[in-house]
């Protein structure tokens, strides 16, 4: 019924457009065919041209359609239409959309929205599963220093390691047996930093006496000294591929040295407090510093300028360590959620971890074990990727000294990552190994 009435209506509407009057056809034949006829009202309708749709549909026509469409399965809304009437005036044709088509469109959009929300929720709930790591157990205690052990460095061939302490001594120990091999004197105050070169037979040391020394490991003597710091030097690092040494300390600047000529290349200034830890790596940012002003700075070594400043820590940053295989690093301070891991080169925050103490030292091995040593002697082991702690313990101070107390100041894994060395306030070096 609906189809027949629509067909009759359209036929009557376009009946007069089938053929033009003879008078108009003769005028068009005599006129220029490129110019359209601009005459009378009758010429508004040209052959092949569609009539413009009326601006409105007579209410009587709409009502008649409504009467005819009752009972055909369409739903009515209010009193103006028997169904959800959508009139398209394109090409002068009235288009009527069935409710089931509209419901189908709405259902599709709702399903797409639901799918997007589910994906977003899954991404938010996606947490990295921690990797299983064996427990670590104390295997050896090495004594010999007469002061707090402040720094540890393992040589690249994994045969020996060096320690510096408050007794102004640098001691060389056999890594396998723990026996003392050599003692070096030369500093007149606490030795705070050590680094062994992988490219030359050199070892570098720095201390609270403002001195930076280069030791020849073949003669066991100082062959160079680097002068320039205005106060105690607390940390140093070697570039892995260049003859470059970086030192930093209480004067709040990091100084870049040419290792061979002793020339000062750059002064990296910007921190407002003591620089307590430093990292040097091959790729940008090649220098990373952590300071008592609670910031971590990433530096452009070639330009000698700061790339960015990380201000996520609330208190002084005392420890930094880089992952040996991933292009990332970790920083430690004091207070809640005080260990953070960052992705290079932008310094994007990856994880937050908590050690309920002042973090003095951080170390990470190739298996993704992150060690944190606290000022109160507490130790925590984390899975680096997920940030989940899997072991907590306390450093037990060794008896035999009136000043013996708990406290971990430095740490380092050996080159294989299977042994952990720590130095503390009880003047001893402790070695930890994974349990079988």
Automatic annotation (TrEMBL):
Give the WD repeat ranges: 142-183, 184-225, 226-267, 268-309, 352-392
Please give the Gene3D superfamilies that the UniProt record associates with this protein. Answer: YVTN repeat-like/Quinoprotein amine dehydrogenase
User: Is Nucleus there in the keyword field?
Assistant: yes
Question: In which residue ranges is the amino acid composition biased (Polar residues)?
Answer: 20-40
The record, for InterPro entries, names: Prp46/PLRG1-like (IPR045241), WD40/YVTN_repeat-like_dom_sf (IPR015943), WD40_PAC1 (IPR020472), WD40_repeat_CS (IPR019775), WD40_repeat_dom_sf (IPR036322), WD40_rpt (IPR001680)
A biological process (GO) annotation for this entry? mRNA splicing, via spliceosome
Q: Where in the cell is it found?
A: Nucleus
Q: Which family does it belong to?
A: Belongs to the WD repeat PRL1/PRL2 family.
Among PANTHER family, the record links this protein to: PLEIOTROPIC REGULATOR 1, WD40 REPEAT PROTEINPRL1/PRL2-RELATED
Quaternary form? Associated with the spliceosome.
Name the chain's protein: Pre-mRNA-splicing factor PRP46
